[in-house]
Give the backbone structure.
Amino acid sequence: MQKIIVSDLGLMAYETAWNYQEERLNEVIASKKELKSDSHSGYFFLVEHPHVFTLGNSGKSDNLLVNEDFLKSKGATFYKTNRGGDITYHGPGQIVGYPIINLEAFGLGVREYIFRLEEVIISVLKHYDIHATRLDGATGVWLDAESLSDSRKICAMGVRVSRSVTMHGFAFNVNTDLDFYQLINPCGFTDRGVTSLKKELGREIDMTEVKNLVIEKFAMTFGCEIIQLNAS
């Protein structure tokens, strides 16, 4: 069974977390040839970010609907990133997951990897009696995906894979301030909504509880052993 080191990074600036990911990605790439049965196959970081908008390398800059001066007035920043996908928002109350794992060790391709990441969040939502699914032609986790008028995304996905090692990951709205999504076309969509666990359940959700569920479902979905560090 593959071993993954899990760590809760708390509230961390986006650029700091990005640099940290890059360091760990290079570490995992360098260690791939030396992988032994008693070593680990990567990391899984959970983090919250201060208000920030990020644009994927295939995204369109005009999906940011305001200028950077306006973002500054809202206490937000903007970054063009090297992940896939379009524009999204990160902020307090949102669980951002960054798996940095060796896909070869798991025998996974990129498509199956993203499918399993989505399955992690779908399983977490099932715990709260929320039925979530996928949307054909779009990554992420959706509610009422089959209805154009009612469909809403609760978790965005955007990854980068280098030499079969992953980075970036998912952004799961738990207690997220959804007003910030009005400043963008989320993931490039203009005709579908966004939501959060708080909005769907009508109450504030304990973040530690959800993080623990995410870790549990990640271990089950990927069939790995978790080595947990400084968890909140």
User: Anything to note?
Assistant: Residues 14-31 form the longest helix (18 residues). The two ends are 25 Å apart (CA to CA).
